[in-house]
Amino acid sequence: MMINPKITLKDVAKEAKVSVATVSYVLNKVGNQTIPQETKERIYVAVKKLNYVQNLTARSLSKGVTQLLGVLLVSDKSDLISKHISYGRYMDDLERLAAEYGYHMVVSHIDPEDPQLSIIQERKLDGVFIIDACEQSFHAVSNQFQFGTPVVLIDSYIDDPLFRSVNMDWSALFMNIRSSLRETPFVLIHEYYHNNQLQEALYKASGLPASKICAITNINELECFIHNHPDHRIIVLNEFLSLHVAKYCDPHRMLIVCTSECIEFVPELASKIVLADSKSKRSFAMMLALIQQPYNDKILDEYISFT
Q: What is the CATH number of the domain that holds 77?
């Protein structure tokens, strides 16, 4: 069987009628070189024609970076599948943004009680997003990163000035809810968060007693909770969780907080509140800023409001 020879930078340069250095500058997006747009286009055409694939290992050795970003989702067996799905749009959008800037992404689940760290130990990551970070195991995970590696926390509060986060503005959310519902009593249903401080901030902003909050880890809890609050509006965090809730109550009673940016999954006849900005865009912009200036203390935590 014939094996096609590996296409090299030299082959691309020959096809585009430029030097190997010029091809390298263009593909690696070297900013201090002035290269005509027409030349860049010839190189891109040659890359596509020859089906050239860059050697990431060689590039990381030559540049000292890997163009590799990690996404760690903290989860365990108690998490509902709807929670995992709820981050699908976020990670898909994040990957698209990363690709626009020449980055690749690796995604892994991390058990909060027994974090397996091979994804970190076996790779040099240029930056890491951690979703729903567990306080108890966070530093065991973050200590595996090379010093200075940017970390952006998503849906997480960590008391450590070294790390930046992007979270929901819970206070603004419940001001919005109270303005909308006026005097109507309501209860809150959400999926359990491994980040205790995030959950505490959510509860404080809601102003609700524990009896009116359901942090669900088992679908069987839903029917009983809803049955016990027949005269209340039901606030649900996450469009996918709302599909479970809709099995047990009239959608007219539901107000869905669309944390997943997937409003098409909101049950028909249910009301909804949506994010005022894209969580993926905000967190990726923060990551780029930290990669460029990892010790810049003017890069601050961000909070996304709702409309």
A: 3.40.50.2300
